[in-house]
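Ligand-bound model needed. alpha-methylisocitric acid.
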Amino acid sequence: MGLNIAQKIIKEHLLSGTMVPGEEIGLRIDQTLTQDATGTMAYLEFEAMNIPRVRTELSVAYIDHNMLQSGFENADDHRYIQSAAHKYGLRFSRPGNGICHQVHLERFGIPGKTLIGSDSHTPTGGGIGMLAIGAGGLDVAVAMGGGAYYITMPRVLRVDLTGRLRDFVTAKDIILEVLRQIGVKGGVGYILEYTGEGVKTLSVPERATITNMGAETGATTSVFPSDGVTEQFLTAQGRGEVYRPLAADADAVYDGEIEIDLDSLEPLIACPHSPGNVVTVRSLAGKKVDQVCVGSCTNSSLYDMLKVAALLKGRVIADNVSMSVSPGSKQVLSMLTECGAFTDILSAGARVLECGCGPCIGMGFSPNSGGVSLRTFNRNFEGRSGTKDAQVYLVSPETAVAAALTGCITDPRDIGFDRMPQTKLPETFSINDTGIIMPLDEDAAKDAAVMRGPNIKPYPDSYPQDDDLRAELILKVGDNISTDHIMPAGARVLPFRSNVPKISQFCFTAVDETFPERAKAAGRSIIAGAYNYGQGSSREHAALAPLYLGVRAVIAKSLARIHAANLINAGIMPLTFADPEDYEKLEQGDMLSISGIFAGMETGEMILKDETKGTEIKLSCSFTERQKAILKAGGLLEYTKNGQN
Ligand code: MIC
Ligand code: SF4
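Prediction:
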């Protein structure tokens, strides 16, 4: 039986387990990336493992999230990461060099290689045929030390693309259509693999938009074939030698299939507050817009920016709109400047932000009160923009420009262009890697110091799992709770990413202001969630802050992949209701207990006693041997320190 692309790369990197969907597999990791908001913790964890040097083929530390320096904290974290990268053998991408995923695609990604990154949009690398997966910082730290990365062997969903996109319909609309079809949890347990004649009509940046936002389906990752288009892109980046073709075998088998007819696709838009709330742009036409943002790791490539410039050229944005443009990398910004397209953007009245995540993570440019913001980004969870009552919509660059010009939501086919102005990717990109600082060689590194500012606090205490747990149900939440609800980001909170005691004061405050205080007072506690608990980002702080506050278990109808792994890594048990209806029986404040946890880990069943109500509820769990050992050790760090992997 033939293999698909995902299976081929997994097979080449398989260190343990069998490739049977649902089984645990250990993968050899070729490359890692971190960004600053998750990186400080990842390097603290790496240091705690006492490994002198990274053991991957390539590891890169990026600074792109915490770019506002309105106090010493972010600058201290940048210094810490830079000095750690220098000493431990990583390349360091300076602040201003660009968003990790965009820069990695341009300068480092290699078809057929494995990459894990402490950021959920690491699958961007799937645009050039990498197996690129988002993970918690601790998993990345272990991989940097040469350890395997463990996942559940995914099923592979074939996304068959037929036909060719029409003008003003874009790669963003393809991924929005995927989200419309399968929703924000439809990809859980799957890799999305793109096939069909439509694939060859898409450039690498377009493919990367699609694999990037595939994260919003909950998929393990997404992957495109590596073909002539990939080779051309790598050659234009001066890296043609790393090209390798990759295609599915003719008789490859998939675990499911969806089809998208590119010819009949329409411009789409995801409505507040979920990337899965997708409708056609036309159905919302006329709605007044306050803000438009172009950028983020989803749509900040040179190709995207050139299209934006071409549509804005000689025009002026509407008076009621404030528009920002953040190019994805120094390369993109330099090339836009060199060809004059940047002037077209500025002349139209847009405001330029630096090459980084910026408004996507609430690092500045928050909308006005109740503001309607159209963004080319990938997430629109409530409050993520920094303005609690803002209405954030996700769109393509073309739809973003249409709104900026007219002042209201507008289908880009209705702004008076007969055809989309032609934009071509250059035959060679302008290559200038001054934004990357190389590490010290091994000898020099021995004496190099790592610089730690006062904001950097150690990893929180761990708690080995006991056989019994008695704790209060401290919080009960509903469906689709994102890590932005659990551990908010934004300019105010992000500077404390290396200070768990401090950042914990913001934990769950988006849902319940009293949570941190109540949890701390309770000593130990349990959280109950519904479907898709922990969707969204890879931030392990969404597990570390609850750990610090005393949370010992999360019981949900279902959990998102990266967050469930982060909970286990932190030594917190993720459990599910055997019967989802039982969720209704629990009430916040109930005293709960579970006994015989170790036996339950073996059978996959535990009984939860609600002591307040005098009822019993059946819970399910499915921990691998390794996960059981991690929980018993009090988390992955302790487990790894004990010499296990
Ligand atoms: C995000 O898009 O939510 C982030 C911010 O990039 C996160 C990482 C983080 O919280 O630092 C992610 O996607 O993993
Ligand atoms: Fe940065 Fe936004 Fe991309 Fe996350 S989704 S890496 S915050 S640009």
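The chain is about 30% helix and 20% strand.
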